[in-house]
Amino acid sequence: MSASLNDIIYWISHYGYWVLFPLVVVEGPISTVIAGALAAIGAFDFWAAYLVVTIADITGDTLYYAAGRLGGESFVRRYGHFFGLDIKTIENLKNHFDRHAGKTLFIGKVSHGIGGVFLVAAGLADLPFNIFLGYDLIATLFKSLLLLSIGYYFSRDLYRVNAFLQVLALVLLALLVTFFVWYRFGQKKSENSKND
Predict the structure, then answer these.
(1) For FRET with 118, which of 33, 73, 93, 111 sits at 20 to 30 Å CA-CA?
(2) Measuring CA to CA, which residue among 56, 61, 48 is closest to residue 31?
(3) Phi and psi for 49 in degrees, rounded to 5?
(4) Which of 51, 2, 58 is nearest to 30 (CA)?
(5) What predicted TM-score, i.e. pTM, was given to this entire model?
(6) How far apart are CA 185 and CA 172, in angstroms?
């Protein structure tokens, strides 16, 4: 269950960096924006918050990656049908990450609301952890600085920023589902034409 914006503001403003870390792992973007807003009023040091947020975000991303990596093919065989995944799709995914790892991870990382899918996919595709971590660090440094800056400069409009992030997540999720359906339809059509 997701915490409300008021809860997150209360926890971060009262418990500081100690609660900022786990909140960013769980509720990353809005917690980061709130940390930026609190830095604007002097409750946080901007650069200390940036360090905490970056480490917390990478920790959360690593958990997603590990879920895909450790779950592997058994996860796909057991639960893949819920997501339209099968072993062949994973093989295609591995090939895609071999050719475009950096670009794919960066797009996934900055895509609010659907980034976890890309991170799990990187693990499923057996992308080496050092490569994952390198690209993830670059994307996280950029995204964390951007979100902290949004909070810092738009601290009076936190509720509007939160509403925007929620709408953005829904739009990106809809686009991901549309792309996935289109991709699966294209695969089936290709397989049918080969069988004819």
Answers:
(1) 33
(2) 56
(3) -65, -40
(4) 2
(5) 0.70
(6) 20
